[in-house]
Write a structure and sequence with these properties.
- By secondary structure, the protein is an alpha/beta fold.
- The chain has one domain: L-arginine/glycine Amidinotransferase, Chain A (5-stranded Propeller), CATH 3.75.10.
- It is about 25% helix and about 20% strand.
- It has a three-stranded mixed beta sheet with strand order 2-1-15, sandwiched between helices. A three-stranded mixed beta sheet has the order 3-4-5, with helices on both faces. The chain has a three-stranded mixed beta sheet with strand order 6-7-8, sandwiched between helices.
- The chain starts with 10 loop residues before the first strand and ends with a strand.
- Bound molecules: arginine.
- The site of arginine has 16 residues, from loops.
């Protein structure tokens, strides 16, 4: 373990939860009968954004649109790697209008946007680590999208089979600590995919089901600081042991929609 982990300044895109709500159920966390406290959601989200800025990261915003309650989950909209943008095609028809809004933001910011040919949910299922892309499938993003992503970026794209509906996106079961290491919850994956992760990341931080159910794997690391759900207590302890600096940020209102810290954060990688 290095004596001190180094952070790298990041550029993030986020979307204010002005119209956040749970109006339909497209994953097991969502229930049409649940009440969302919008003021609490806004204050949790503002704390997240303020924390990124205090840590020296650049945060940009895309304008939210009424009638799109999940648009706050910016991570699902695209994957950006080496300055190239791979635009999503959402599984749920309720979310498909988000595609054009995010694509327009990236075009206005000077990027070309390639739109996926099959279902693909951006950084929800596509997680760059070092020179590879880890790619989840099973609930949303298709194996055809993995092939398209590999062809588009020219980066080795490693397919991983998700098996537990509570962890329907890869970013609910795994996150990147730095260019060499990850944290994950093994039982969210098929036996073969678990073996792949074990071979690629023998030093990985292994999380418990309690950590995962507390959205502990939906974390964002800058290489040193890890913004993490406060109830993922065992994971927080392990991060300290491994030399990282946990920064607890409570996003409990967003858990009602099946999202957390990472879901609200799109990284723009130059
Ligand atoms: N309600 C949203 C959905 O099911 C939540 C998305 C969470 N985003 C994520 N990156 N896991 O699509």
């Amino acid at each position: 373990m290095p004596a001190s982990r180094l952070s790298r300044a990041r550029r993030y895109l986020v979307c204010e939860p002005r119209y956040f709500d749970v109006q339909y159920a497209i994953n097991p966390w969502m229930s049409e009968n649940v009440e969302v406290d919008l003021d609490l959601a806004l204050s949790q989200w503002n704390t997240l954004v303020g924390t990124y800025r205090e840590l020296g990261h650049t945060v940009e915003t895309v304008e939210p649109e009424a009638g799109l309650p999940d648009m706050v989950f910016a991570a699902n909209s695209v994957l950006v790697a080496e300055g190239k943008v791979f635009g999503s095609r959402f599984h749920a028809p309720q979310r498909r209008p988000e595609e054009a809004l995010y694509a327009a933001w990236f075009k206005a910011a000077g990027f070309d946007v390639h739109q996926s040919e099959t279902v693909c949910e951006g950084e929800g299922d596509l997680v760059p680590v070092g020179s590879h892309i880890l790619a989840g499938t099973g609930f949303r993003t298709t194996p055809d999208a993995h092939r398209e992503v590999q062809e588009f970026f020219g980066m080795p794209t490693v397919g991983l089979q998700l098996v537990d509906p509570y962890f329907y996106h890869l970013d609910t079961a795994l996150f990147v600590l730095d260019d060499e290491n990850i944290a994950y919850y093994p039982d969210a994956f098929s036996p073969g995919s678990r073996e792949v992760l074990q071979r690629l990341f023998p030093q990985a931080v292994i999380a418990t089901r309690e950590d995962a159910m507390a959205f502990g794997l939906n974390s964002v690391s800058d290489g040193r600081h890890v913004l993490v759900a406060p109830r993922a207590e065992a994971l927080i302890g392990q991060l300290v042991t491994h030399g990282y600096v946990p920064v607890p940020v409570d996003m409990s209102e967003f858990h009602k929609a099946g999202g957390g810290i990472k879901c609200c954060t799109q990284e723009i990688r130059a």
